[in-house]
Amino acid sequence: MDQNTVLYAFVSLIVLLISVLYAALVIWSPQSIITYSSEKKYRCRRSPNKPIPLPYIDDPATVDLSVIVPTYNETERLPKMLEPTIKHILSLPKRKTEILIVDDGSADGTAALALEYAKKNSEIEIRVITREKNSGKGGAVRHGMLHSRGKRLLMVDADGASRFEDLELLWVALDRVGGKSPDHAAIAVGSRAHLVKTEAVVKRSFVRNLLMYGFHTVLRVLGVGHIRDTQCGFKLFTRKAAQQIFPSQHLTTWIFDVEVLLLAKMLSIPVEEVPIEWHEVPGSKLNVVTDSLQMLRDLLILRANHLFGRWKVSQSTVKVVPS
Ligand SMILES: Nc1nc2c(ncn2[C@@H]2O[C@H](COP(=O)(O)OP(=O)(O)O)[C@@H](O)[C@H]2O)c(=O)[nH]1
Ligand SMILES: *[C@@H]1O[C@H](CO)[C@@H](O)[C@H](O)[C@H]1NC(C)=O
Ligand SMILES: [Mg+2]
Questions:
Q1: 3-class DSSP state of 161
Q2: For the stretch 47-62, what's the b/e string if a residue is b when 16 or more beta carbons lie within 10 angstroms of its beta carbon?
Q3: How far is the CA of 161 from the centre of ligand 3 (A)?
Q4: What is the pLDDT of residue 319?
Q5: What residue owns the CA closest to ligand 2's atom 7?
Q6: Do 6 and 78 share a domain, yes or no?
Q7: Which of 33, 35, 67, 72 to mutate for ligand 1's pocket (most ligand atoms within 8 Å of CB)?
């Protein structure tokens, strides 16, 4: 065989390999996120039966803070989370706050329970959004972010694993990175990194801790190694940051936090990490084995889509929806 033939075969093989990888990527990547028209409406105390249209993130802010709570089968844990949350919000009456409970197609009556809380509390607007199908935590958080009214937007887990009062730590951290000016994009994220050497984490199973170290290694390769705790369910965004990030989010699974932080990095949005309190709450829906595999798959999909330029951030993705 002459040299040219070898070279030709080699190049063909590479081209074939890349084509196969690309085809696999197209097949494995999540479909674009569908929003049903019923999901663009909410129920609340004033209108518990007739849903009202929601605003969009590009509309101007009309409250100071939106608290976004994704829920799936949370009748057990939600009350324990909502009570201290409402108490804290009422202790700061000058800050106009709304709570958005984004129920992700629960089958246990979570939405009805949330609506009961909405009816009981006249001082805070509690909005209940019902998703038609379960789409994963990432899908629910994204949906809430895109349909909130706040100058600042907080995502928080429904299980009460974080102490809601720690919001104030995130609040001042966001001020520090420039979030005070209304047109500034900035993020403050809760972090449990300081707990790693303490009981709360050491008590967790060996498998879970091993997975944690593996996960951190993958994150470093991905380019978000600078964030010590990407997965904490307590993150505060300025409206500007939410406008720039969430329309470009593709992943709706557990790993969406990593995509959000990667998008922030690509958009040069500052991220401040703030140590917060945390306690494991029983009843987690995370399955260590299957969800870890799913996370790894989604991280590869995320990286590959950015490499091939299929997923990118651009200002034009921030679509303006006429009201
Ligand atoms: N919308 C939505 N939220 C979910 C889903 N699974 C879990 N969550 C929410 O994600 C948050 C954290 O869930 P949890 O099961 O405690 O996971 P962990 O804290 O990571 O172990 C809670 O607010 C859950 O209700 C889901 O499929 N859809
Ligand atoms: C949610 O609840 C429904 C009905 O109780 C059940 O069929 C489903 O498996 C539950 N899902 C999870 C993840 O717990
Ligand atoms: Mg939890």
A1: coil
A2: eeeebeebbbbeeebe
A3: 6
A4: 43
A5: 107
A6: no
A7: 72
What are the helix and strand counts (H, E) for the chain? 10, 9
Give which of 139, 168, 154, 119 is closest to 274, Cα–Cα.
Answer: 168
For ligand 1, pick from 143, 157, 232 the residue to mutate: most ligand atoms within 8 Å of CB.
157
Q: Give the residue numbers spanning the domain of 4.
A: 1-30
- Tokens read off for 239: 């409206």
CA distances, 322 to each of 90, 130, 248, 317 (Å): 34, 23, 19, 15
In the reported structure, the alpha carbon of residue 126 is separated from the centroid of ligand 3 by a whole-number distance in angstroms of 22
**Do 119 and 175 share a structural domain?**
yes
Residue 237 has pLDDT above 80, yes or no: yes
Q: Give the neighbor-by-neighbor strand order of the sheet with 63-71.
A: 125-130, 97-103, 63-71, 150-156, 234-238, 187-191, 271-275
Residues contacting 18, CB < 8 A, separation 6+:
none
Q: Residue 96: which CATH number?
A: 3.90.550.10
Nearest CA to ligand 2 atom 10: 73
For 192-228, the pLDDT digits (tens) are 988 877 766 666 677 777 888 888 888 988 888 999 9
DSSP string, 258-307: HHHHHHHHHTT--EEEEE--B---S-----HHHHHHHHHHHHHHHHHHHH
Is 323 contained in some domain?
Answer: no
Ramachandran angles phi, psi of 2, nearest 5°:
-85, 170
Task: Mark whether 221 and 272 lie in a shared domain.
Answer: yes
Interhelix angle 206-222/288-307, nearest 10 degrees = 0
Which residue, judged by its Cα, is nearest atom 19 of ligand 1? 284
